Amino acid sequence: MKIKNSSFVISAVSKKQYPEDALPELAFAGRSNVGKSSLINMLLNRRGLAKTSSTPGKTQLVNFYDIDGLFRFVDLPGYGFAKVSKTQKASWGKIIETYLQSRENLLEVFQLVDIRHKPSGEDKQMYDWIRNSGFSGIVIATKADKLGKQQIAKQMKVIRNELQMTPEAVIIPVSASDRSGKYQVWDLINQIFEVNAFDIHLERQNTSE
Ligand SMILES: Nc1nc2c(ncn2[C@@H]2O[C@H](COP(=O)(O)OP(=O)(O)OP(=O)(O)O)[C@@H](O)[C@H]2O)c(=O)[nH]1
């Protein structure tokens, strides 16, 4: 199956604004500025679909993207941005929690971490929450173009240890700059659909430019 159309659906703050149909959703969680929007654009071959920014903390809403009317990507608000008020932090936390705890459409949550850094306390909290909620605990390590091969291997171990990932939990290094890791992520997404008995299978070659 080829991806023909991907489009922005809605930026939601409250549950009332979430799309009402039962399409399956895959969510992306991570620190502000980790590269969620860039990853979504890379996966969909859409340069400006998800708005990227060099200013952290921009995505404060739950952004829904429709993919061929078959499923959705969900970009969750980035956490961990220091320069915001406590009230704002609490409200973002609530927005993330509401989506993650109440969304029946949600198949998997991908946790994004910057491959260069040790996961933060908030990354660990987020990861524990994901695992405790019954999701697989898939980690996507972003900005892999910033490191050499050996450093990537080393950092993958650091991330595994810090997040206390199980041996079978998957971690994929990706780069939105050189587009590495893209096929691994799509392969994994296909597997997720298969495991959840959805008749959706995206062709690898059709996601390349
Ligand atoms: N070198 C490099 N830079 C990247 C990569 N992915 C994202 N960036 C840069 O990192 C910054 C943040 O990227 P975004 O995709 O906007 O991050 P986000 O997680 O959506 O950010 P928020 O909107 O704050 O939640 C931008 O300046 C991107 O150009 C990557 O794979 N490699």
From TrEMBL:
Residues 22-195 form the EngB-type G domain. InterPro entries: G_ENGB_dom, GTP-bd, GTP-bd_ribosome_bio_YsxC, P-loop_NTPase. Its cofactor is Mg(2+). Keywords: Cell cycle, Cell division, GTP-binding, Magnesium, Metal-binding, Nucleotide-binding, Septation. Pfam families: MMR_HSR1. Necessary for normal cell division and for the maintenance of normal septation. This is Probable GTP-binding protein EngB. It comes from Fusibacter tunisiensis. The lineage of its organism: Bacteria, Bacillati, Bacillota, Clostridia, Eubacteriales. The gene is engB.
